[in-house]
Amino acid sequence: VQLQASGGGLVQAGGSLRLSCAASGITFFSRAIIGWYRQAPGKQREFVTDISPGRITNYAESVKGRFSASRDNAKKTVSLQMNSLKPEDTAVYYCNVRLYRDTYWGQGTQVTVSS
């Protein structure tokens, strides 16, 4: 299984970015829970959001109302729309796939929010 994250970049506070994660080598993508995590410099990786096979989403309190996750099972992709970005959102963002007992991670994409 390979996960390719993209869409990161540099944005000013208050701006928006849309991250995407494309999965390959996975047969039952539609049955997987897809998540986004992030890791800021000097900090542990933290949960951002996940979306279930039934498209139920969970969000960290810090991003509720600003971030929105979606998935396209036909394309085996998941997106993360990030609005009203804050400097504290600066981190490397990783997509994550959990399928049955297995967990897979993408390589991460850098998001930098300037004040």
What would you say about this model in short?
This protein has 115 residues and is mainly β. It contains no helices and 11 strands.
What does this structure look like?
The protein is an all-beta fold. 0% of the residues lie in helices and 56% in strands. It has no helices and eleven strands. The chain has strands spanning 2-6, 9-12, 17-24, 33-39, 46-51, 57-59, 67-72, 77-82, 91-99, 102-105, 109-114. Strands 2, 4, 5, 6, 9, 10 and 11 form a seven-stranded mixed beta sheet that branches. A four-stranded antiparallel beta sheet has the order 1-3-8-7, with no helix packed on it. A hairpin with a 2-residue loop joins strand 9 (91-99) and strand 10 (102-105). The model has no long low-confidence stretch (mean pLDDT 96).
Shape, per Cα inertia axes: globular
Overall structural class, as computed from helix and strand content, comes to: mainly beta
> Which spans have pLDDT < 50 for at least 5 consecutive residues?
none
Distance between the termini: 37 Å
Care to count the β-strands?
Answer: 11
SSE succession = EEEEEEEEEEE
Give a quick account of the main beta sheet: strands, pairing sense, barrel closure: 7 strands, mixed
